[in-house]
């Protein structure tokens, strides 16, 4: 695509985050929201109506219909992580550029397949981690890289917590292993891992963690297993600064 060409986006899936991204697409000077797809036409039309898009975007009752639309240049995909591999690869095969919500895949193997599909079909891939691509984050890295500000960094710790209502525990995809098996690790964990890499001024490699891992897979009365809710680890990366992460 030419640099000055307007990108016509389609949204596959009407998750809550799609509302914010739809607004961002509309406000961007080089993009327009062209179509929205859900598992039913009623859901797609409801999403369009609730977000002031009725009459301005096409609505589809299946993801395949949107991907088959030749007027869609790129797709934003906020689907549950367990669905990413199938639909992301299919989108690439349909020659649609891909903005994929985090976590991008259930594991590295799935992500490799998605990236290979994008590369072999000549389309661009971008993750949906706004914080990573924000100018403020680049400024943070620049500031921290000046050793006279902080001196030697000896250890990094980060923690996040998030309240979980009864409705969250019963219906959110992050407590449903068949939809989003990474749970807290895939949700809050992204920010922690990236923050540690930025502060350490290094790049991400597949070195993993040490053996000191703590997990919580709680069984709530009446709900059964509700997924990975608590996670802590001491990372073993290729830089020398120890770091600990914890998110619940």
What are the segments in which pLDDT stays under 50 over at least 5 consecutive residues?
209-228, 242-248
Count structural domains.
Answer: 2
By oligomeric state, this entry counts as: single chain
Q: pLDDT average, as an integer?
A: 80
Q: Please list the strands of the largest sheet in the order they lie side by side.
A: 3-2-1-4-5-6
Could you name the CATH homologous superfamily of the largest domain?
Answer: NAD(P)-binding Rossmann-like Domain
Sheet/helix structural class: alpha/beta
The secondary-structure element order is: EHEHEHEHEHEHHHEHHHHEEEEE
Helical content class: 25-40%
Individual helix count = 12
- CA radius of gyration: 20 Å
Q: Architecture of the largest domain, according to CATH?
A: 3-Layer(aba) Sandwich
Secondary structure: number of strands? 12
The biggest sheet amounts to:
6 strands, parallel
The level 1 CATH classification of the largest domain is Alpha Beta
CATH-defined fold name of the largest domain: Rossmann fold
Proportion of β residues? 15-25%
Q: Assign an overall shape.
A: globular
Q: What is the terminal separation in angstroms?
A: 42 Å
């Amino acid at each position: 695509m030419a640099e000055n060409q307007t990108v016509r986006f389609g949204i596959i899936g009407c998750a809550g985050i799609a509302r914010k991204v739809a607004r961002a697409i509309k406000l961007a000077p080089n993009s327009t929201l062209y179509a929205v797809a859900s598992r039913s036409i009623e859901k797609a039309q409801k999403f369009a109506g609730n977000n002031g898009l009725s009459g301005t975007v096409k609505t589809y009752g299946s993801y395949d219909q949107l991907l088959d639309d030749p007027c869609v240049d790129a797709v934003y995909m906020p689907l549950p992580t367990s669905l990413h591999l199938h639909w992301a690869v299919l989108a690439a095969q349909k020659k649609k550029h891909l903005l994929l919500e985090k976590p991008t895949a259930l594991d590295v193997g799935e992500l490799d397949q998605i990236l290979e599909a994008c590369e072999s079909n000549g389309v661009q891939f971008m993750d949906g981690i706004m914080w990573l691509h924000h100018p403020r984050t680049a400024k943070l890295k620049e500031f921290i890289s000046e050793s006279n500000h902080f001196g030697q960094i000896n250890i990094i710790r980060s923690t996040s917590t998030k309240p979980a209502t009864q409705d969250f525990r019963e219906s959110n995809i992050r407590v449903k292993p068949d939809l989003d098996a990474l749970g807290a690790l895939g949700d809050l964990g992204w920010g922690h891992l990236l923050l540690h890499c930025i502060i350490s001024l290094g790049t991400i490699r597949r070195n993993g963690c040490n053996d000191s891992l703590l997990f919580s897979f709680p069984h709530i009365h009446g709900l059964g297993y509700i997924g990975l809710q608590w996670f802590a680890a001491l990372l073993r990366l290729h830089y020398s600064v120890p770091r600990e992460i914890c998110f619940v």
